[in-house]
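subagent[fold] <- orchestrator: predict structure for attached chain, return tokens only, no commentary.
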Amino acid sequence: MAKSETKLLLQSNNKNLLPPVFLAEFSNADLKFKKRHSLQFQSYRSSEKNALSNPKKMLVASTDKLQYVGSNFESEMSKVTSSLLKVGVYNRRTRQFKLHDADFFHLKPLLKCRVDVNNSQKSWSEKTQDLALTFGSKNRKRVISSRLKYESAANDTISHDKVQSSISSETTITEENKEECQIIPPQNKNANRVDEIYNIYDVIPKGDYDCLDTEAKIFMNVTRENLQLLRNDAKYCEFILHFLEVRFQNLSLHTAKLLCYLNYMTVLIKTTYKELKRKDPFPDIPQPYKSSLMEKYLVNRHLAQKYCRIT
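subagent[fold] -> orchestrator:
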């Protein structure tokens, strides 16, 4: 008689979503299924959504006398986050093999007892210390009391130091905020136009603004041929080059001065720490704009006095 051959076919469950299978392992349980419905199961799922991990679930098994509770995130198997449990079910009639997602639960008896919340939060050394204070000898109690007084005094000293450090840090932050307020110009809340929000002399000193006539001529006399030369020199940022390309025909002297000063500020911002350590960190910024920018925007104000003589 020829042996019957059985073929196993794996069927994908992407189209038909199969329900998950719960694998339960009982600990300290004496289960005797004498009745048909002697054991009832209830499952709970967490509302938190995390795409990187499986949803947290709890399984409760109830009998006439006791309940068993377990979760899929507290067992040893659930600690391996990269594992994915599957259960295969073979249908003898259709000779097909279907895979179901599975969750493993380690069920333990749920014992109802009084729990001292304060006691459960204490460490093992603190509990041992409480026992010694209650049932220990006089010498043991005296040693523990002295140590507790010493720790209390040390904690008071540490807390005082923390308060002093926080006060000093708040003072430093306040001073930094004052310096920041000095850098940011005041706003005109009654302004009707954009150019009326800030006073231009709060951003550019009046003396520097009057001296920008000579430097602004390079933007006043620009042509399409000169634009390509300016782009090849790589001395100006893309915003200034694009603005000149669009508005070079009707460029006013005021706008040219603003573009020139904006270029100096851009050079200041792009300067690295290594370049600041040089003798002249801003060779592309002429005087007196170099001194005023360093005085206003550098943290170490003494650097401005050091480089004021550079021409």
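orchestrator: received. Logging for downstream: The chain has twelve helices and seven strands. The first strand starts at residue 10 and ends at 11.
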